[in-house]
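Entry for the shared binder. Reason: the reviewer on the internal report wants the predicted structure included alongside the sequence.
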Amino acid sequence: MPFVTFEGGEGSGKTTQLARAAERLRAGGHDVLATKEPGGTAIGEKIRAILLDVAHGHLDPVSEWLLYEADRRQHVEEVLRAEVAAGRFVLCDRYSDATEAYQQVGRGVDRALVQRVDALARGGLVPDLTLLYDLPPEEGLLRAHARDRHVGRFEGTALEFHRNVREAYLAIARREPGRVRVVSAAGTAEETFAETWRHLAERFAL
């Protein structure tokens, strides 16, 4: 059954859009699981605390990447595979595309290594649809800083990093047009949700 991932850079609004989509799907009678990476399990929440702690700015890029993969493997095996098999509408805030964009391209971790280990972590579980919320990183970072009083590990990274992440995401969309739909996040939340729902409705005949 439907497995949908929500991707995008900092401040793109993907988390808000996921929550709105879940609410509308539930109102339409669908059984929905809204989850996230990192942090979709109890173990994942502990990993998330390490990854997002601004005090861990010295975290080695490979160590960072492996923590994300550990979180993903636990998420897939403990939650995602069973929920998809049970027929629920599974909406996930970030998945493997984020690893390619942030760790492989942004951090420069070896591509072949990332692809091999991520395939192991996913265990063959691929999204039916990925919604990519696209926004210039300058605007996204302004939004993220306005939203949060503190600057997290990724929000505090150099602008060039975020530009590379955006380009990596767009490259994924070009490579996999059948799975990935690019949604402009430049407008209001309401405008963005109208486009979000259009893609969901078209893909799943809602």
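Summary line for the report: The chain has eight helices and five strands.
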